[in-house]
Amino acid sequence: MPQLPAPDYPADVRARLEADAKEVIARYPDSRSALLPLLHLVQAEEGYVTRTGVRFCADVLGLTTAEVTAVSTFYSMYRRKPSGDYQVGVCTNTLCAVMGGDAIYSALREHLDVGDGETTEDGKVTLEHIECNAACDFAPVVMVNWEFFDNQTVDSARQLVDDLRAGEQVAPTRGAPLCTYQETARILAGFPDERPGAVGATGGAGAPSLVGLRLAKGETSQPRVVSPRGESVKDAPQPGSEHLSSHDAPQKTSASDPEHPAGPVAEEGE
Q1: How far is CA 206 from its chain centroid?
Q2: Cis bond leading into 140, ω under 30°?
Q3: Closest Cα partner for 64 from 53, 75, 55, 74?
Q4: Residue spans per domain, the chain
Q5: Are 176 and 193 in contact (CB under 8 A)?
Q6: Residue 23 buriedness (CB in 10 A; 0-12 / 13-18 / 19+)
């Protein structure tokens, strides 16, 4: 049986979204370039990209619904089904995973009694594992509606989701104040962030990320320059001294040489 056409928004909602869409489209030289923010706009309306939202984007951009659907299903930031007010994402990429991210994710699945991408019965929290969010300095990291909650533990993550479900005020470790997923979607569509304290808010970089910047500014001592293999460099460490790198005093190895399959080659006179 062929699928029925998607229903339209009520007239007042449609008029409001058309006004917003006109503002978004005006930012781009080619209207179809506005598709990503418009998908955020319709997601802000119902909490996910509905068939009605897809039809709306297609209508205002002169695209087919198939073209809009292809984009909306490609990117993970667009939801395809109803979900919670708070998207709780646990980073399970390598560093966060070994620092405790895997344990946090497993604990939250059990604590909330949900699987990946599933929502609690009260409609408050959707749990998922996420890819790296460039916050490795603060591993393990949990994100709620794309705001950072750094250096989490199993216990702190459980308390976080409990507070969200209870309607308690929850403050991210850094960055802007927390808001609902639909409010976040409208901000991502490019509209002003009206949250108190959000102006000028930044995630900030951790100390390890700033080491290179401090070195460039001369705010800390320069690392010792090591000598390249086979060359003499002034102040290079002498044989027998403590080395920062194997390049300081290289061993003559030839493990990849079929004619010399043994380990380190002894120096003359040894």
Answers
A1: 16
A2: yes
A3: 55
A4: 11-72, 86-180
A5: yes
A6: middle
Q: Let me know if domain 86-180 sits in CATH 3.40.30.10.
A: yes
Would you say domain 11-72 falls under CATH 1.10.10?
Answer: yes
pTM: 0.71
Rounded-to-integer distance, Cα 90 and Cα 139, Å: 10
How far is residue 213's CA from residue 102's CA, in Å, rounded to a whole number? 32
Range list of β-strands (E), the chain: 86-91, 125-130, 142-144, 147-149
Residues with Cβ < 8 Å from 117, sequence gap 6 or more? Answer: 83, 126, 127, 128
Residues whose CB falls within 8 Å of the CB of residue 127, separated by 6 or more in sequence, listed in order: 88, 89, 90, 105, 108, 109, 112, 114, 115, 116, 117, 118, 119, 161
Predicted confidence (pLDDT) per residue in 31-82, tens digit: 989 999 999 999 999 999 999 999 999 999 999 999 999 999 999 889 999 9
Token pair, residue 137, equals 């300095």
Q: How confident is the model at residue 207 (pLDDT cuts 50, 70, 90)?
A: confident
Q: How do residues 9-27 score in pLDDT, each as one tens digit?
A: 889 999 999 999 999 999 9
User: Tokens for 99?
Assistant: 């620092």
Tokens 């320069």 found at: 222
